[in-house]
Amino acid sequence: MKRAIVFAIVLPAMWSACKRQTPRYVLHGQVVQRNPATSEITVKHDAIPGFMPAMTMPYKVKTPLMAAIVEPGDMIAADLVPAEDGKAGNGYWLDNLRITDISGRKDRKAVPAARMLTPGEPVPDIELTNQDGKTIQLSNFKGKALLITFIYTRCPVPNFCPRLSSQFAKIQTDFAKMPDDYAKTHLLTISFDPKYDTPEVLRKYGLAYLQDDASGFSHWDFASAAPARMEKLAATFGLSYIEEDNQITHSMSIVLIAPDGTVSKYWTNEWTASELEEALRQAAHKKE
Fold first, then answer.
1. Do 33 and 62 lie in a common domain?
2. For residue 29, which of 50, 51, 64, 54 has the smallest C-alpha distance?
3. Residue 18 above 50 pLDDT?
4. Beta-carbon neighbour count of residue 273 at 10 Å?
5. pTM greater than 0.70
6. Count of alpha carbons within 13 Å of 200, Cβ hemisphere only?
7. Which among 11, 19, 31, 207 would be 20 to 30 A from 1, CA to CA?
8. Which of 98, 93, 86 is nearest to 60 (CA)?
9. Which residue range(s) make up the domain with 28?
């Protein structure tokens, strides 16, 4: 009987020892932005030898309280941990976050608070310039369900802009097979990098996701706005972005505009293409 009891106690210990440990990497850097509402901070960090080059990226924080405590300019240290559920924005969490120096707080400009539109509110009619150099406005799409996202074509992070554009390309392909859905919806990708993302650049970028079929632009526009207009648009839809060292650090925002021109729904990091498709389809066919 004693032997059986010992075996029952030892076996879980052996099993635990055999479990694969989630790797952790030490990160050192400076906080650029924070977003307590989504438990995210953007960090300009040093290279992590053998794993990641120096860069500026947003990260989910394992302890939400820390996302509210840190300030832009703070120097921090943290454990960078791959997210097992794949829903931590760029695929990583920051755990055991420690503030190591607060002297940089006074050296950085505070990011002004912006009022983000809530579902049911009308969107402003801001002018954009699309991939053909044509001026378009959000009101052009009234009567259709409009799905908008924000990117910049030079984005080097696979889980951000390339992911957004690839998933929008899937939606484009799927809806093209359903004429009724296609006719009642529209996709709009907006670049917040107008200095680089000219109409020519956006057209080339768009064709890469449209399989070189320019007819797809009738359903999916790629556009940019003058800097002042872009700032207003970003504030409207809760997007934050900062250009630094020839790289743009930004949050992720997808917004669904109802056919009546009001905000229907938002997504940030946690979403799937099928979820976006279903929401877009429902908004398009919703009866007044």
1. yes
2. 54
3. no
4. 15
5. no
6. 2
7. 19
8. 93
9. 22-107
